[in-house]
Amino acid sequence: MSKPVASPTEFDFKEIPGGVTAAKGFRASAISCGIKNPTATRLDLALIVSDRATATEGCFTTNRVKAAPVRLCQQHIKEGDIRAIIANSGNANACTGLQGISDAKAMTKAVAQKLGVRMKQVLVSSTGIIGMNMPIERVTPRIGELVEALDAKGSDAASQAIMTSDTKPKSYAIEVECEGKPFRIGGIAKGAGMICPNMATMLCFITTDAAVDPAELKRATQSAVEQSFNRITIDGDTSTNDTVIVMSNGASEIPLIKSRSPCTELFRAALRKVMLELAKMCVRDGERVTKFVEVRVQGARTYMDAKVVAQTVAKSLLVKCSWHGGDPNWGRIIHAVGYSGARIREELVDIYFGGLIAAKNGLTAGTPVKELEKVVKKPTFTVTIDLNLGAANYNVFTTDLSEEYVDFNAAEYSAAVHAKRQTGLA
Amino acid sequence: MSKPVASPTEFDFKEIPGGVTAAKGFRASAISCGIKNPTATRLDLALIVSDRATATEGCFTTNRVKAAPVRLCQQHIKEGDIRAIIANSGNANACTGLQGISDAKAMTKAVAQKLGVRMKQVLVSSTGIIGMNMPIERVTPRIGELVEALDAKGSDAASQAIMTSDTKPKSYAIEVECEGKPFRIGGIAKGAGMICPNMATMLCFITTDAAVDPAELKRATQSAVEQSFNRITIDGDTSTNDTVIVMSNGASEIPLIKSRSPCTELFRAALRKVMLELAKMCVRDGERVTKFVEVRVQGARTYMDAKVVAQTVAKSLLVKCSWHGGDPNWGRIIHAVGYSGARIREELVDIYFGGLIAAKNGLTAGTPVKELEKVVKKPTFTVTIDLNLGAANYNVFTTDLSEEYVDFNAAEYSAAVHAKRQTGLA
């Protein structure tokens, strides 16, 4: 039996630079291949490599339409000892049939050859437009260059190369002490899209130099994803390409982390912390959103009731519109609570904006609207819904809905096809 | 056994004017009470009366948060022989607790007294803002006037009085022949809001001078609602006040319609036709929408699979944005199909815009984008999704999502509270 330890807190984590190469023994690189547009020069192909053997775990989209790279990753990851991840933006390689599988394989094969590993030791992730073939002829010939560029400070370039409509790269890393010795865990991510209901792909690559037993890595990864990315990609509305990969290579000197090692709880908390920070960055950078809102539900009869209420409110167009206008419209919130399907009693529902009560027992609480507006007009606030029926709770992170969002999303496909035609590729 | 008859077709229905007073023995009226704003002069209180006994059926919101008038209607309608419906816009009388119930009762009581019927023979419907008390002192003293104004041509005024953000009144009526004798069925409705996910109340009042057995009226009403209003208010996202009421008074000379009378099928089809026309008017008049889209799903394994796919696509923000931009983005559609939860096989999915195939077997079908754009740029079109797995189908009516919609819905509550304060009522 392990000795009882206090739960890890924020104070156990020291933020450090370096993102996905903060952990020892990992290198990364990125180059520009013109995947979306052959004349563009932005970085769009990234590589992350571990210099030693790894335990690697992945969580992939639950969408029944799965991109070719996702299908391939799910096969490769079973084999163990993953050494590299190749990732591109500009094309999702989704809805591309057998050609898509062949292109994804070609990417892993080219990397494997240059690194001198087996093809099954390489994972691949893609993000971008759906339904168009990957311009593979502009990708595979460049893999040598990509491998040449590998660097222990390559995280920033890699984080830029996976961006699509993201306005900024997303990177986070921490150092943690286990029995007097440090280990590092960090990662990069891309999000954007409205997060919910969302078609923009969420990609997240995390590395750690802790040595982690594969079974424990699986448990820790699944639990951390549930408490971070699953709270922003609401209701299973995941894209065809969503992917979270965690690689652990044991380059630090801490003892192997198994299900009940002294540092197991610490490792789990550290992984959760890194994912939650990256997930929050994704929400904040949602396409043209102006508000970051946490919806907390408490007092639900069951966990599922708390979850469905939080998700329904976070998803309601009319609620999101009211936040955008800085409007403390609790009527729209209780209405969404009502149609969520959860067991609720209207006459028990309390709703708060920040710390201010807006509705008490399903009726207006009498707090002056001007006070409530001060909260909702902020760029970041919390909405708390107390169902006063039980002890279950759940929280999700979401955004408002802006006019710019609609405008931004109105003509992606046509624009892409026309761009292709203009460059002589259609 | 009834003799077999051909299914009724459009040719059996003759469109006539008159809306909710097209049927014999019904009268309606409307006045302006300044419910939302005491200084405004728009019609906001309507009355519909049957001059003789009725069989009356209602369908009410499934939202667990129910407005006071909905709760009262559900009680009164059980008693039978409903004679009148009083309906107002400007205040939903929802989330108003015991005061709300008391106000709704006061409205039915005032009408009952003036008409000389029992309070339980009067139904009440309200639509407007949630969470504010009904200004009942401006309503009940005016009921005498409202009764005085009753007129066999009063439908137009009543249809205007129930409007909220609707841009035009909604009215439809038909005349139908049963065994050589005519009966009439018609109604008025209000919709607006985005229809899905929707907080704007949908109200619909239908009258017929056919004599209909209460059990058959219930069956016919439920079935017609399922095939009309339930195809626009998607996924149970009904407002706190949604109400459909059908009154039948037997003022025509056709024989009583029971479950297997000669005209039963005709009556059912006629009721469905009236509801479907009114439901379509609600979608077309959705707040600031620019497109009217029918989503048809066919080839599903089960009815529930077809339904969930249709609803998920019709609800997807990113799909709606693409329609708004006239963008034939089938990738976003197949993505929504994938996360709907229905059993699908990506490699079997076909997607059509109008009659043009955009995706075949989950891949681009090669139809020129310019051709597809011609369809999606129209104000009205159909999207057909063939899952190629079975024989079940389902269709829903929906809209695009426009920048104006977001803008329009951004500050309702604050504006209402501030307006109240300015007029000295807060």
Could you walk me through the main structural features you see in this protein, from its secondary elements to its overall organization?
2 copies of one chain form a homodimer. With 426 residues, chain A is an alpha+beta fold. Chain A folds into 2 domains: 12-284, L-amino peptidase D-ALA esterase/amidase (4-Layer Sandwich), CATH 3.60.70; 292-401, Roll (Ubiquitin-like (UB roll)). Chain A has helices at 68-79, 97-115, 143-148, 155-161, 214-226, 264-284, 303-315, 317-324, 330-339, 369-376, 403-408, 412-422; strands spanning 13-15, 26-31, 45-50, 55-60, 84-91, 122-129, 170-178, 181-190, 203-208, 243-248, 292-300, 350-353, 356-360, 363-364, 380-386, 392-399. In chain A, the strands form 3 sheets. A 6-stranded mixed beta sheet of chain A has the order 1-7-8-9-10-4, with helices on both faces. In chain A, helix 2 (97-115) links the parallel strand 5 and strand 6 (122-129). Mean pLDDT of chain A is 90; it is low at 194-198. At the A-B interface, helix 8, helix 9, strand 14, helix 11 and helix 12 of A face helix 8, helix 9, strand 14, helix 11 and helix 12 of B.
